[in-house]
């Protein structure tokens, strides 16, 4: 029997993708089916009005490339239009807090969405099934309803004290949101209740019939543009008509004899390559997994990569990103030497905010095709156009409202994101297909999962389940499963250690490992998802 495997944070979406594989679809068909269902059953994590990054590896067809579909700032933006409203910045670099939350929730928070165009391009160019059949499972879930799962309840009710809009306020922002996500008595729906979104079912039916064009230049596009104009939004019909995804060669790196392919800026692959280059200079296996020394070294590496990202990495169409230097072994060696000398990195932030409103899907089919895709709404805008059912991204919140910086506002510009769907190769054959949601914790979670496999000989499920830590600011953040005896020496040495109340924290990594010709999958237990094996033939 031939084997395929799919892993994602939503069981309903995994089942839909697995069913496509059983029906003879390939990895691309399964991934896009899964993605569309994710947008229905976990609608604040992703959707047709979101953004993301997709890596395709199709060896028999000779294709291996990435599709970047980040949200782009509408043509109406100006670089200084929000400068006077700044109240703070996220400690992990995931956006800014503005007075009135104008960049965070509501019509001005929406960037030009790219998700549906990328889904359609990938599937119609590389899939084997009809587009309408790929969309149908999502239509069915929207029509019959899906249940509220534990991870959704947590996300809807979390009180993070960040200064951003709370998720429940995003959910009640629109008429559709109040109908879909709240009970008749005004209470937010609870665990196990049903979300029914017939407007989304009708919208997806039109997309199934007419493809992505209906969203970007047809009837749906006109509906979107009219709603934006009526409510002071920045997004226009011309923005939708002119939006294009970007196809690029993968960004390559090496680590202890393995090769890895990841995405180009404005994605987060550069951080992953840079961190692995630095860590080659340390014997992590000898230190011991999650030992005090191990945490100190890896977090010092994280801080240096974060600082480089903040200074140099943005949309390469607008910013001259020194990619060759950042990814060079020489640059990594110099930073590793500084760490060995005891020099500590620092990352300055203005405030305390973090976001993880993202999701992922990883698929490897029996023919060896592999897809790794991370897609998101960023910080959901709360906006749902009457009659369409989907929530728009809120990605204007992650642009820098200060002119002159790598991620400052500009028309048509994409902002850096930590999304980095990655494939690791051993002797030119994939051995890991991995990715994660989790804001700027994405690269940190993927990094540790790769280290867990290569340096600590874990399988995929062990690798994504092991306790994680992070340093996207000057502090060291640790999950609550890392013993206090391990972190106490760091505190005594003068580090600020922040303990997460969550046992599972710092992104939700999902992946597939191929070892000795056999696959095993991992689904981060911090979420509700699963990895499913499919046998065919």
Write the layout of secondary structure elements.
Elements: E1 2-8, H1 11-22, H2 27-41, E2 51-58, E3 63-69, E4 86-89, E5 96-98, H3 115-126, H4 131-144, E6 146-147, H5 150-157, H6 167-171, H7 175-181, E7 194-195, H8 198-210, H9 213-216, H10 219-230, H11 237-242, E8 246-248, E9 251-255, E10 258-262, H12 269-279, H13 284-287, H14 292-312, H15 323-326, H16 329-340, E11 358-364, E12 370-376, E13 422-426, E14 429-435, H17 442-454, H18 460-465, E15 469-470, E16 476-478, H19 484-492, E17 497-499, E18 510-515, E19 518-523, E20 530-536
Parallel strand pairs: 16-17
Antiparallel strand pairs: 1-11, 1-20, 2-3, 2-12, 3-8, 4-5, 6-7, 9-10, 10-13, 11-12, 13-14, 14-18, 15-16, 18-19
Helix pairs in contact: 1-2, 2-3, 2-4, 4-8, 12-14, 12-16, 12-17
Describe the structure.
The chain is α+β, with helices and mostly antiparallel strands and 537 residues long. It is built from 19 helices and 20 strands. Strands 8-3-2-12-11-1-20 form a 7-stranded antiparallel beta sheet, with helices on one face. A hairpin with a 4-residue loop joins strand 2 and strand 3. The longest helix has 21 residues. The radius of gyration is 22 Å and the shape is globular. About 1% of the residues have low confidence.
Describe this protein with a few key phrases:
globular; 19 helices; 537 residues; 7-stranded antiparallel sheet; alpha+beta
